């Protein structure tokens, strides 16, 4: 079984976003749905299963749910459904060669999918996901460069990486 690249996955619906969060919790943190419920302060797993079945996760429970799962697919989906692009805030670490190489690989993948899409050989959902991922990566690097002068980020000093 191949490993999933969680950074490149995009939700197609609210239910899919919730499923991705739970899969991420299971794969990355070895958390069962019972443990996720405990971490978010929910007393019954049947409530979470009901939310998962209907897609009616209460807004006040989104952040506790995502925090317990360690993923933000629900928030990202809500932003995308409003035609907004959500990007992660810079972590305060300098970008290294692998970050730039991943950005270049993302560009290549997105452009290849775009070419295939215009030829009718790729579907819109995967093309949009690749373009959104690339745009978010560029925006992250832009924000990182913009914040180099901010005192809370020591991007180009030696010391702690994270």
Q: Overview of this structure, please?
A:
This protein has helices spanning 14-29, 33-39, 45-54, 59-69, 73-81, 97-118, 124-146. The protein is an all-alpha fold. It folds into two domains: 6-81, 434 Repressor (Amino-terminal Domain) (Orthogonal Bundle); 97-149. The protein is globular. The model has no long low-confidence stretch (mean pLDDT 86). It comes from Denitromonas halophila. This is Helix-turn-helix domain-containing protein.
Topology readout:
Layout: H1 14-29, H2 33-39, H3 45-54, H4 59-69, H5 73-81, H6 97-118, H7 124-146
Helix pairs in contact: 1-4, 1-5, 2-4, 6-7
What attributes does this structure have?
162 residues, Helix-turn-helix domain-containing protein, mainly alpha, single chain, 434 Repressor (Amino-terminal Domain)
Question: Brief overview, please?
Answer:
This is Helix-turn-helix domain-containing protein. This protein has 162 residues and is mainly α.
User: End-to-end distance, in Å?
Assistant: 30 Å
Rg (CA only): 18 Å
Low-confidence blocks of residues: none
General shape:
globular
Number of domains: 2
Content-based structural category: mainly alpha
Q: Using the coordinates above, name the CATH class of the largest domain.
A: Mainly Alpha
Organism: Denitromonas halophila
Protein name: Helix-turn-helix domain-containing protein
